[in-house]
Amino acid sequence: VTAAGLPDGTFRLLQGVGHEVGAALVTHPGVGAVGFTGSLAGGRALADLAAARPEPIPVFAEMGSHNPVWVTPAALAARGAAIADALAASATLGVGQFCTKPSVVFLPDDDAAQADAFIARLAAAVADAPLAPMLDRRIHAAFDARRDALATTDGITDVTPTSGGPVRPGVLVTDAATWRREPLVREECFGPLIVVVRCPADALVDTVATVPGGLTASVWSEPGDDADRTLASALVEAATRRVGRVLHDGVPTGVAVGWAQQHGGPYPATTAPATTSVGMHAVDRFLRPVAYQ
Fold first, then answer.
1. What percent of the chain has pLDDT over 70?
2. 20, 55, 99, 182: which is the annotated catalytic residue?
3. pTM above 0.85?
4. Active site annotation includes 62
């Protein structure tokens, strides 16, 4: 920072194990805008503190890691194993601690055998992934607690083979009715866990409205199949209203600092859906327009 000629104070690091440091910074009169990456609870708490100031300031909070995935019937039939492998690698990257981790897969089960094969392949790949320890003991304990709570919820089945690593990853399977009924399954689980929701192909588009606002959504389809292409178009159109970045035939992990990057989304993914926290336009969050007339 110094070598670049930037002024003193451009970069500072304050550490603390509690909430006091963050709260003090957000409420300090010398602070005019805040950027945050973390949990929904943490981001919302800071946004509320900033809004309660005598002179409120903006908080650009990027929160959670709820990134839904839809697989169309033709894509499942043509390359279900490859899709499962890609999603497993993405969900376990960084021990599942990326904000762009795929968290829920909506899978057509009109062909039960194909759906079963996909789930078995996904579960085996997740269990075989080499995992390091999580960031700290508190995060690891929270992941285990959420994983256990989900795995013991009625209508949810844990299909993950035993894994001998420092973290127990998970692939949990449920149906659309349980997904809609149980609030817990629709909440973020920060760590290497994927929920697979089995449902009929003609119900896939309806499930888009059930997901919370997110950073990304992924649609896997086969462009050579006319019916599948129509379904994929409907999924993309619906997902566009729910997230900030829509991917076709790709995994959401991986964020590039470039002009085309959009790393934001509707609440609760962020507190400012019209902004991006990564990319060339990210600086706009901390600029205030002024006109001299």
1. 100
2. 99
3. yes
4. yes
